[in-house]
Amino acid sequence: MSYNIAIKGIGSYLPAKVVTNTEIAERVQTTDEWIHSKLGIKERRVAIDQLPSDLGCEAAKKALADASLTINDIDLIIVATSSPEQLSPPTSCIIHNKLGASRSIPAFDINAVCTGFVYALSLAGPLIQTKAYNNILIIATEAYSKITDWSDQHAVFFGDGAGALIVGYSDDGFMHCELEGDGSGTGMTGFRLPHSTPFIMRGREVWDQAISVLPTSIKSVLRNTKMTVDDIKMLVPHQPSINILKIVAKEVDIPMEKVKTVMHKYANIAGASIPIALDDAIKSHEIVEGDKILLTAVGSGWTWGTILLKYVR
Q1: pLDDT tens, the chain, 313 aa long
Q2: Which of 15, 37, 98, 263 is deepest in the core (most CB within 10 A)?
């Protein structure tokens, strides 16, 4: 489906605490060299005294400032998170309160794990297109450090952080979304987070799923929008590993210099990876108004999807 959407504001927030590969490596019997060469990660941020709602609140403040709006200008809040501090009330309502809104605003959470932001932005599309809402605040926030067994080898993968967008209608804006899901990825497959335990991961299964579905999804979006890779300024993926992204880029014939990566400094921040990377690219002027970009992600379950977006303010 396609919609006329503008990004009115964008922001991201990373906790101050930096944890390097070297600090983790001794615990899990690996090396900084292995982590960096296989995953592309050098360090990650870890929230010490902050909750996912705190991270999301700070990212939202930056997006609101970027849009020259206040929380009371927002008509709807959507939060994507797979690591909430509690099951209920939802993180979206907690952030509504922490932002000091003086009026009621519809708010809900979604969980599509690493595909969470792609799903959330896709959900906002028809609501903006029909003018049901004028300003939708989308926040993706994750704090995997709080659900990680730091003695497990998979502790090297993830970091904490949040990204936020405010979207509205624009005749000049364009967004095409394609979402997928396959419940065969439940049970003991891939990535699991049972109640009251750290996450459990089977890295090879995540790898196999990612290199299978992401190229197919990207190619489908390009075909259905009658675009080619030459029309695309940048691919902004979720950050599973540098080697996965190299394979995906090769499969869709996009040069790696067009693939935005931030995992070297932030690791994989699950559902928040894309808005954080997108904010980084926009603030550094790697993406400018009018550019066409691809957003793509795969998450446990399985969920996956790709968005083609024309960046319009």
Answers
A1: 899 999 999 999 999 999 999 999 888 889 999 999 999 999 999 999 999 999 999 999 999 999 999 999 999 999 999 999 999 999 999 999 999 999 999 999 999 999 999 999 999 999 999 999 999 999 999 999 998 889 888 899 999 999 999 999 999 999 999 999 998 877 666 777 777 788 777 777 888 889 999 999 999 999 999 999 999 999 999 999 999 999 999 999 999 999 999 999 999 999 999 999 999 999 999 999 999 999 999 999 899 999 999 999 9
A2: 263
Q: Which of 144, 169, 194 is the last residue of a domain?
A: 169
Residue tagged active-site, from 57, 93, 114, 177:
114
The answer on 119 and 14 residing in a single domain is yes
Length of the chain: 313
Euclidean distance between CA atoms 268 and 258, whole angstroms: 19
Six token digits for residue 201? 């991961």
177 is catalytic: no
> Do 195 and 208 reside in the same domain of the chain?
yes
Residue 283 DSSP class: H
Residue 109: both structure tokens together = 């959470």
pTM > 0.85: yes or no = yes
